[in-house]
Amino acid sequence: MKQIVECVPNFSEGRNVEAIRAIAAAAAAVPGVKVLDLTSDPDHNRSVLTFVGEPAAVRDAAVALVGAALPRIDLRRHRGQHPRLGAVDVIPFIPIRDIDAKECVALAREAGAAIADRFGIPVYLYEDAAASEERRNLSNIRKGEFEGLAEKMKNPEWKPDFGPGAPHETAGAVVVGARMPLIAYNVNLGTADLAVADRIAKSIRHIGGGFRYCKAMAVDLKDRGIVQVSINMTNYKKTPLFRVFECVKSEAARWGVNVVGSEIVGLTPAEALYEAAEFYLRIEKFSPDLVLETKLMKAD
Questions:
Q1: Is there a single domain that holds both residue 24 and residue 172?
Q2: Are β-strands 88-97 and 123-127 bridged in parallel, bridged antiparallel, or unpaired?
Q3: 78 carries an active-site annotation
Q4: Residues 258, 252 contacting (CB under 8 angstroms)
Q5: Which of 156, 187, 157, 161 minimizes the C-alpha distance to 173?
Q6: For residue 83, what is the domain's CATH number?
Q7: Are 173 and 123 in contact (CB under 8 A)?
């Protein structure tokens, strides 16, 4: 059975359709790579691409994507609601089948070295690939964003893992790593008051005393006239999706605000949605084998 690795690059362009398609096409053109999803958000001004394949092909596709983004994204002119450090902001490698976390760490380091060498962009390693505990958390690396990166990199503690000691003029830096599947989950609120979303985000995220495997921030969706609690679920098995949603809904009610919808960015493991179905439907003795499609896949 072939090894399968998933890669989910986030790049800082969510409005220029031609540029987004060209960047995604560069990864898709690598033999052996299959693109599963492409999601773009104009408010965040960010796109998330999901592709899979054997390790070497996925590594090469990630490097090719950076090459395609370089002439198409200039962070000096980039504006969006989502924090970002680079034109290609983050590239995680995720083990899916017959490959373990250590092998994905090696893959991340190979990709990081290649990106720095080929394009002259500083590369930081994060999560399981991090060389130090301080760099494990993406938000620590991203703090200060592109605008503060040049000053930040003057500190010897923020010397990149690969590449030059100063930011790329237009592309900043790239953060590359290995991790388990992450769920990018956003909850939209029926208010334009960003302070409400900010209070809720602070209450649910781990750094503020909330859920251990939850990161969250407030986002102003100006075009829709509402605000959003933008969430990264870093371990859905230990912090279930439904539990975080219920907490957001409860906290919003305290401010007289309703939840008007939620969204998943990119792809999510089926298990996380099965858990939500089991919770809300109160299904007794639930098993994924109750799902028709699951049975059909097992029969193939």
A1: yes
A2: unpaired
A3: no
A4: yes
A5: 161
A6: 3.30.990.10
A7: yes
Residue 266 lies in domain? 183-292
Do 219 and 238 share a domain, yes or no?
yes
pLDDT at 1: 63
Q: Cβ distance 148 to 142 under 8 Å?
A: no
One domain for residues 204 and 259: yes
In a domain, 205, yes or no: yes
Q: Is residue 92 part of a domain?
A: yes
Residue 192 backbone dihedrals phi, psi, to 5 degrees: -100, 5
The pTM of the full predicted model, rounded to 2 decimals, is 0.80
> pLDDT value at position 240?
93
Mean pLDDT of 265-271: 85
> DSSP letter string over the chain?
---EEEE--EES-SS-HHHHHHHHHHHHTSTT-EEEEEEEETTTTEEEEEEEE-HHHHHHHHHHHHHHHTTT--TTT---SS--SBSEEEEEEEEEES--HHHHHHHHHHHHHHHHHHH---EEEEETT-SSGGGTSHHHHHTTHHHHHHHHTTSGGG--SBS-SS-BTTTB-EEEEE-S--EEEEEEES---HHHHHHHHHHHSGGGTS-TTEEEEEEEEGGGTEEEEEEEES-TTTS-HHHHHHHHHHHHHHTT--EEEEEEES---HHHHHHHHHHHHT-TT--GGGSHHHHHHHH-
Does any domain span residue 297?
A: no
Q: Please, what is the Cα angle at 245 between 236 and 260, to 5 degrees?
A: 135
Encoding tokens for residue 172? 């900043």
Total structural domains in the chain? 2
Distance CA 94, CA 96 (A): 6
Active-site residue, from 44, 78, 82, 206: 82
Which one has a higher pLDDT value, 297 or 54?
Answer: 54
Query: Do 210 and 288 share a domain, yes or no?
Result: yes
> How many residues are given for the chain?
300
- What confidence score (pLDDT) does residue 208 get? 86
Angle, alpha carbons 258-261-266 (nearest 5°): 145
